[in-house]
Amino acid sequence: MSLKMIDYIVDEHSIDIDSGTLKKVKEMIVASEEGKSVSSKEKQFLYDIVANGRNGIDVDKFDYIERDTRACGLGCNFQFQRLMETMRVIDNEICYRAKEYLTIHKLFSTRADLHRTVYTHPKVKAIELMVVDALIKANDYLQIDSLINEPAQYWMLDDTIVKTIETSTHQDLEESRNLIRRIRRRDIYQVPTIKPESPES
């Protein structure tokens, strides 16, 4: 969908971009493994910016770690700006100063904390499962799955769909509506506590 969305944005907003540049942008989005074939080996480091398969330090992590720590009120000691200001390209690879090892350590320790205390927390997983069940039960009426391959419609799918289900009076959404209301009341599924595995990416 990411690549379809890029095409949609370019076409919808009449963005003037040549086909070669557009191809490279798409490759940067999907290039997540070291050694993945790309159209040009020149400036290979560019393909590590979004999803770095060599060492896992990339702007995707910078983005969601800062966003999620702020959203959860956890605070974030990791300062990605320090890395971005001092990084250099050496032998076609993005490198960092040795004295920034603590900053890099904070990146991965903060990510590990998020996985341990937020992403895999039993209550978070329970609510996640309930939302998934609510969406599945609502699908026949709302036709959610018909939108996932249509960028013009897909981009409009966001958290407001939960409010749409919750405030609807349609009989076909009753089961979904009841699940959402259970979440509001904190009457959530009971999920067994499982020690999370160490994240790999």
From TrEMBL:
Source species of the chain: Solanum tuberosum
Full protein name: Metal-dependent phosphohydrolase HD domain-containing protein
Residues spanning the membrane: none
Database matches in PANTHER family: DEOXYNUCLEOSIDE TRIPHOSPHATE TRIPHOSPHOHYDROLASE, DEOXYNUCLEOSIDE TRIPHOSPHATE TRIPHOSPHOHYDROLASE SAMHD1
Pfam families in alphabetical order: HD_assoc_2
Domain HD-associated: residue ranges: 80-190
